[in-house]
Each structure stands twice: as C-alpha cells, then as structure tokens.
TrEMBL record:
Record key words, sorted: TPR repeat
Origin: domain of life: Bacteria
InterPro entries xref list: SirB1_N (IPR032698), TPR-like_helical_dom_sf (IPR011990), TPR_rpt (IPR019734)
Annotated ranges, domain Protein SirB1 N-terminal: 45-197
Family to which the UniProt record says this protein belongs: Belongs to the UPF0162 family.
Protein name: Protein SirB1 N-terminal domain-containing protein
TPR repeat feature ranges: 193-226
Pfam families from the UniProt entry: TPR_9, Transglut_core2
Length: 281
C-alpha cells in the first residue's frame, strides 16, 4: 500500500535550505491553517492526474516551447484554470485547495499549479517574483520563455516585460541587466513568503487581524528575522490588544531597521505601549 502525501511540520521549515523546502507541501500547510480538515493526499493525486493525462502528449513533442504550449492548453483550456479577475482579492485565491476545487486563483497560486505539473513532466519551470504580478520562466537554450499563468500561460516578450516592470521602478524602463535580475528564479522560500504576504494584505484590509497576524507569524516561521513581518505582526498584535507581543515585535523591527521610513512613528507607538497609554484605533 502506498504511503499518502505527508505535509511537513511548520517548525522544520526555518532550518531548511531555500530550495529544499517542499513547495507544494508548504503551500498546502498554509491552506490547512484555514481548512484544518484539508486532505493533502487528494490534491497531490489531483496534480498527478493532471500530469499523467499529459505525459504521452508531452513525450511525443521535442521542442520545449511546444511542450509548454501543450501543458498550457491542458491546464487553462481543457481543465479551465483561470485568473480570478472579478474577485482578485478573495483570500480563496491564495489557498491551493480552493484553487484546485474552483479552478480559480491569483498569479502566484496558478503559477504554483503550473510549476508542479511541469516538474512532474520533466520541465524545470521556475517561478519569478516579478514586481506586481508573479510569473514563470523556462530556460530554453541560451534564452528563456517567460509566461503569465494568470493569463492562461501567455508568453511575454522583452518589451512587455519592461513595460510591466516600469511602474515599479519609478517609471524607468529596466535595461538588459536589470531585467535579467528581475527575472531571476524565485526560491521556494520567497514564493511561500509572497503567498503569505498576499494573504496578510487581504486580511489587514478587511480588519481581520487574527488572520493577518497568523500570516505574519507564518512568514516569521520561514524567516525568523524578517523585519517586515515583525512589523506587521506587531501592528496586528496592537490591533488585537496584545500589548506585550506588539511591544516586542515593534521593538525588534526597530533594532533591525532603525532608519526605516516608519521608524519615528513606531518608536512613539512603542513608548506608548510601554507607558500603557496606547489604544487600538
């Protein structure tokens, strides 16, 4: 009898090398925080069925771009995976079990499905933590094929990539060197942290501070000294009235980034927390 798909333990993740982190398993761990009865084996088997349905077709194709074209057709046309444009900030777009069930997701969750299926078919598809919108890339000869899973795996040329990056670079178009750096493959840790930051942002905007704190806490499990997550968890603790936790996290953030743009405001907050005068607003 085959063993089922086992999820890793959260506490084991911080000490693992970035790319040794089990991407699918850790992404399902994130989902299990919200869905405690999640059946990880079911979703691993579903991914395997996607790959198995393609294997004969992929093996018969030689050029890598055409292999990816076949994968894209199966995932985004035959199976119907799609970007959720109407409810982009629905938290379900970030939870893989919901992405599998609803065939709807955001750029990074769809990229993870894309990557997992490609890997099971022998294609080393990487994630790209592109500014604003997560992408995927496949090395092809001396170049790379960059695709957008949120838009049915559509290939992106250099001009479009420069235009997409420009608003996040002060309006400047990146030169070849800058674009190459932006397109560097994202580590598994970076992918998981970006998924959690997306969720934190959604929950913070909804004033759902318990879930927002949970997401920041999970980031700190992956990267214990991540300053942004310390600040976010500290502010969430403050909103929840957990004064000691707020004071500790904000103080640690200020130790790590004493010259941060928000350092003055947060120092005042820490002083208020220490004196007992601070109140959530």
């Amino acid at each position: 009898m085959c063993a089922g798909f086992e999820l890793p333990d959260w506490n084991s993740l911080a000490g693992q090398e970035d790319d040794a982190l089990p991407l699918l398993g850790a992404a399902l761990l994130i989902a299990r925080d919200e869905y405690p009865q999640l059946d990880a084996d079911l979703y691993d088997s579903l991914l395997q069925s996607h790959a198995d349905a393609l294997r004969e077709r992929i093996d018969a194709i030689e050029p890598l771009p055409l292999k990816m074209q076949a994968i894209n057709r199966h995932l985004f046309e035959e199976l119907g995976y799609a970007g959720n444009r109407e409810e982009y900030y629905d938290p379900r777009n970030s939870y893989l079990n919901e992405v599998f069930e609803r065939r709807l997701g955001n750029p990074i969750s769809l990229a993870l499905v894309h990557m997992e299926v490609a890997h099971r078919l022998g294609l080393p598809l990487d994630g790209v933590s592109f500014p604003g919108h997560f992408l995927v890339r496949l090395s092809v000869g001396d170049g790379m094929l960059v695709m957008d899973p949120f838009n049915r795996g559509r290939p992106l040329d250099e001009d479009e990539l420069r235009q997409r990056a420009s608003p996040h670079l002060g309006g400047e178009l990146p030169d070849d060197e800058a674009l190459y750096r932006i397109l560097h493959p994202a580590s598994h840790r970076a992918i998981l942290m970006r998924m959690l930051r997306n969720l934190h942002g959604v929950y913070a905007d909804r004033d759902d501070w318990e879930r927002a704190v949970r997401c920041a806490d999970r980031i700190l499990t992956l990267a214990p000294d991540n300053a942004e997550a310390l600040r976010d968890r500290g502010l969430g603790y403050f909103k929840l009235g957990h004064r000691h936790g707020a004071r500790h996290d904000l103080g640690r953030y200020l130790q790590l980034h004493p010259q941060a743009a928000d350092a003055g405001t947060l120092r005042e907050r820490v002083v208020e927390l220490s004196s007992g005068s601070a109140r959530p607003n």
